[in-house]
Amino acid sequence: MPSKVELIAYADRFGGNVAGLHALLDGPLRGLFGGVHVLPFYRPHDGADAGFDPQDHTEVDPRLGSWDDIAALGAQYQVMADMVVNHVSSSSPPFRDWLANGQASPFAGMFLTYGTAFPGGATEDTLLRLYRPRPGLPFTPVFLADGRKALAWTTFTPEQVDVDVRHPATRAYLLRVLDKLAAAGVRKVRLDAVGYAVKTPGTTSFMTPETFEFIDEITGWCRQRDLSVMVEVHSHYLHQVEIARQVDYVYDFALPPLVLHALTAADGGPLMSWLQRRPGNAVTVLDTHDGIGVIDVGADAVTSRPGLLGPGLLSGLVEAIHAHSGGSSRRATGAAAANVDLYQVNCTFYDALGRDDDRYLLARALQFWTPGIPQVYYVGLLAGGNDMELLARTGVGRDVNRHHYTIAEIDADLARPVVRALCRLIRFRNGHPAFGGDLTCSGNASRIVMSWACQGDEAVLVADLAAGRGEVTWTHSGTSRSAPLASLPASWP
């Protein structure tokens, strides 16, 4: 049988806490998802980067629940949790201890500084070679209690201090995290920001051979604990192909922009080409807690290798998203708001398609027919629009796609026709046996046919990209049926 669709959600924004998220999965979402990626539930879950700046992620934020709540969720669903490999919060006890006690601290050396990374100094060329997802150099001045100053390495924000993954204290910390996750019944570990974790003077310090060696090492740690490994890296598509050879899963981050291009330009050529070369052990997504990646289909900024979309097509895609969202994505993207990176467009997928229900359902069908494990982000599940009120309060661009849902909002959205149709499509993808077989693809620039077949059963998607509509033909108990995407059966099988 095929792998079931999985959910991606913040517990505090979709259910209120871990138990509340569990109640949603058991209640109104019953039968939809076989697994759930619970976005950071560590202390604090609401820091500078929505939980991706943990003070200590061996601890569950008590406002969200406990490790027992995670274990209860894991007893019913395959749980994926984040392991923030590259950094910890600047308010974490180890970092504060180092600031207070300097070299006398047991954590001295755990945190990377300019001096420890470049003990012999660095030239301008060496510094400018460093890869970072935002402008400027990755250093923040910090002040130690004895009056000394240091330049802490901060790849993302000043509140996220990079750790030295080679240091014994860091390695002991990461192993404690893995032990906690395994003991709580977590099945999959998502290695967050691991592409930046190893700093090698004279290189970009991003996805270098030393990075791949560390990924291989940490993968070994995970497998010793029966944890599957998912690597999260936004970069040139060939990096995903390379990483896929040494871990259990990678994200297919090229899929979202290619699907958007197909549906906004009526051009399925780049998507069809990608389907022939993408790694098979991928998790498919259209939306996540991050923005819609541009770098994932663009040219390699370091080596100038061409991307899956040329510069003109890429610019056209970005402008199409801004136009379809009524300009709201432009106000949330790049220098227009406080962003961790400048290579993503901040927009919900529903708004990126102009809130066109048929095109949105077709986008989800293209995702579900693509080989891999499909994951659906909680805002995307409810076909959510850009939360401009939250953006206005926080100034954080990615917050347009991180709405805090009340139970009343969830109930109301689940009754909307587009959401009800999406839920039927999820049940179809979960239950039809054809998805456990083999895929064949055909078509031309404006029409794609994707056909799954397994032991006499078929599930065929015909995607009319120009019209923005799709139809499914399937076999069941020896008979063949067809229906538009919006009219699939209410239950399956």
SSE layout:
Elements: E1 6-9, H1 18-26, E2 35-38, E3 42-43, E4 56-60, H2 67-74, E5 78-84, E6 87-89, H3 93-101, H4 114-117, H5 124-128, E7 139-143, E8 149-153, E9 160-162, H6 168-183, E10 188-192, H7 209-224, E11 228-231, H8 237-243, E12 249-252, H9 255-265, H10 269-275, E13 282-284, E14 292-293, H11 311-324, H12 328-332, E15 344-345, H13 349-352, H14 357-369, E16 373-377, H15 378-381, H16 388-394, H17 407-414, H18 417-431, E17 438-444, E18 447-454, E19 457-464, E20 469-476, E21 479-484
Parallel strand pairs: 1-2, 1-16, 2-5, 5-10, 10-11, 11-12, 12-13, 13-16
Antiparallel strand pairs: 3-4, 6-9, 7-8, 14-15, 17-18, 18-19, 19-20, 20-21
Helix pairs in contact: 9-10, 9-11, 9-14, 14-18
Description:
The chain is α/β, with parallel strands linked by helices and 493 residues long. The chain folds into three domains: 6-84 and 168-434, TIM Barrel; 93-162, Oligo-1,6-glucosidase, Domain 2 (Oligo-1,6-glucosidase, domain 2, Alpha-Beta Complex), CATH 3.90.400.10; 436-487. The chain is 33% helix and 20% strand. It contains 18 helices and 21 strands. The strands form six sheets. Strands 1-2-5-10-11-12-13-16 form an eight-stranded parallel β-barrel. A five-stranded antiparallel beta sheet has the order 17-18-19-20-21, with helices on one face. Strand 11 (228-231), helix 8 and strand 12 (249-252) form a beta-alpha-beta unit. The longest helix is centred in the middle third of the chain and has 16 residues, at 168-183.
